[in-house]
Write a structure and sequence with these properties.
The complex is a heterodimer of chains A (262) and B (177). Chain A is an all-alpha fold and 262 residues long. Chain A has helices spanning 12-37, 46-74, 78-83, 94-97, 103-124, 130-159, 162-182, 189-194, 201-218, 240-249, 251-255; one strand at residues 2-3. Chain A has one domain (12-223, 233-255): Ferritin (Up-down Bundle), CATH 1.20.1260. Chain A is built from eleven helices and one strand; from the N terminus they run βααααααααααα. The two termini of chain A are 21 Å apart. By secondary structure, chain B is an alpha/beta fold. Chain B folds into two domains: 13-95, Fe-S cluster assembly (FSCA) (GMP Synthetase, Chain A, domain 3, 2-Layer Sandwich), CATH 3.30.300; 105-174, no CATH class. Chain B has five helices and nine strands, in the order αββαββαβαβαβββ. In chain B, the strands form three sheets. Chain B has a four-stranded mixed sheet with strand order 6-9-8-7. In chain B, strands 3-4-5 form a three-stranded mixed sheet. The chains are: A mainly alpha (262), B alpha/beta (177). Chains A and B meet through strand 1, helix 2 and helix 6 of A and strand 5 of B. Strand 1 (2-3) of chain A pairs parallel with strand 5 of chain B.
């Protein structure tokens, strides 16, 4: 028997808002990890194939962390959340759902997500909700390796050949606006920020965009104006990309609903 | 050889909670990380606490993952339970993330075993991980410090791949975390 520490007692509104935030965080990590894993066996070099497989494993592991925190709040089982939930019940953002594209697209996306995590995790590690603070402190240590790796690729692509640069520019053009979707607060986030369970979202947004801009500038890449952060989160909408990704990812689990392991 | 204790059914030795916990620590020395068979979980620093509620158990073992996505953790949990069960008591395993595991938690003995196994051990960093990451790494085969990074990621989440310029050996290094 493995015992998970019980969740602290919370006001109902806070509990519901936390479940929604943890679901979005877990879904982002899971889908990004899955998109990264699509390169396994197809990487441009053996070393990069292995590196990206490691990154994918880390992201999926972090999804398990966030789903595990949700489990302590509502009893939902992480495997069910990942493999037996319908696309319209996922709360991932478009940034992580988009098809993997070329290598530049995959690396630029990973880099933007890593910039967000590099700013979000240290702040979440100071959350008033202790289980979230502890998990964020754990994930933060591992994310250091991601940002170093993706950041180096952004430089290689931006400062490399004419082709690498044009691919990086095209990828950034498509991805940069979606950073706004990643950074859009959920309806319950304001309450959580007031409780100091979440950081101030405007500060986090500015820090993430600033960090990304600085690293992009070092690679001679200019994303243009700041991404627009929409009023309402687009996470409730199941994009065709999310539907396609989950159809593949869940196909084995759904082929035998009675199976407990595969 | 167990000496029968008068008045105890079955002749089981009378022991208090502290003695049971101490016996559990010894039993845990037999549990290896399946991805690092050279070292046991105690010297790796992932056993955080062992508590016995009484001389007859149960025993609660608190462990912490090295990397949160470490696939070996489930195997380690099962083996920890088995090791404690050999003492004839019920075992419970609790996973704790706080404080996060650091490679500084690894004992000197474990570092030496890693080196002998062919894996360069992580430098002690005292929290300055980025400095330790970029510091020179000695080849575990010839001891030369002139080695170069081949890949920041390797066969498991905790390792990177390096090559020694002196002897030509390609080896893995346990990353400072």
């Amino acid at each position: 028997m493995t015992v998970q520490p019980a969740a602290p007692t919370l006001a109902e509104g806070v509990r519901v808002a936390l479940i929604a935030r943890l679901t979005a965080m877990g879904d982002d990590e899971l889908l990004l990890g899955h998109r990264d894993s699509e390169w396994t066996g197809h990487g441009p070099l053996l070393e990069e194939d292995i590196a990206l497989a490691n990154l994918a494993q880390d992201e999926i592991g972090h999804a398990v962390l966030w789903y595990g925190l949700r489990q302590a709040l509502d009893g939902s089982v992480p495997d069910d959340l990942a493999f037996r939930r319908d696309p319209e019940d996922f709360r991932s953002c478009l940034l992580v759902e988009l098809p993997r594209g070329d290598w530049a697209f995959t690396m630029l996306r990973q880099f933007l997500f890593d910039c967000y995590e590099a700013e979000a995790l240290p702040r979440l590690a100071r959350s008033s909700y202790a289980p979230l603070a502890e998990a964020a402190a754990k994930a933060l240590r591992e994310e250091l390796f991601h940002l170093r790796h993706a950041g180096l690729w952004v430089q290689r692509l931006g400062l490399g050949t004419e082709e690498s640069r044009s691919r990086a520019v095209a990828a950034l053009e498509r991805l940069w606006p979606e950073l706004g979707g990643l950074l859009t607060p959920l309806p319950g986030d304001l309450l959580l920020a007031a409780e100091r369970a979440l950081p101030d979202w405007d500060t986090l947004t500015a820090a993430t965009v600033g960090r990304a801009r600085q690293a992009l500038a070092a690679a001679s890449l200019d994303p243009g104006h700041d991404p627009e952060v929409p009023e309402a989160s687009g996470r409730e909408v199941a994009s065709p990309h999310r539907v396609e990704l989950l159809a593949t990812m869940q196909s084995v689990a759904r082929s035998d609903p009675e199976a407990v392991a595969w | 050889m167990v000496t029968p204790v008068p008045g105890v059914a079955g002749g089981a030795p009378a022991r208090d909670a502290a003695a049971l916990a101490a016996a559990a620590w010894v039993a845990l020395r037999g549990v290896k990380d399946p991805e690092l068979p050279a070292v046991d979980v105690v010297e790796l620093g992932i056993v955080r606490d062992v508590r016995a509620e009484g001389g007859a158990g149960p025993v609660e073992v608190t462990i912490t993952p090295t990397f949160s996505a470490c696939p070996a953790l489930h195997v380690i949990e099962a083996e920890v339970r088995q090791a404690v069960a050999t003492l004839g008591v019920e075992a419970r395993v609790v996973t704790s993330l706080s404080p996060p595991w650091s490679s500084d938690d690894m004992s000197d003995a474990a570092r030496e075993k890693l080196r002998a196994f062919g894996i360069a051990p992580p430098q002690r960093h005292g929290g300055l991980i980025e400095i330790a990451l970029d510091a020179p790494v000695r080849c575990p085969r010839c001891g030369h410090p002139d080695t170069r990074l081949r890949n920041a990621f390797g066969s498991t989440l905790c390792r990177e791949i390096r090559t020694c310029r002196a002897c030509g050996e390609t080896f893995e290094r346990f990353k400072p975390l």
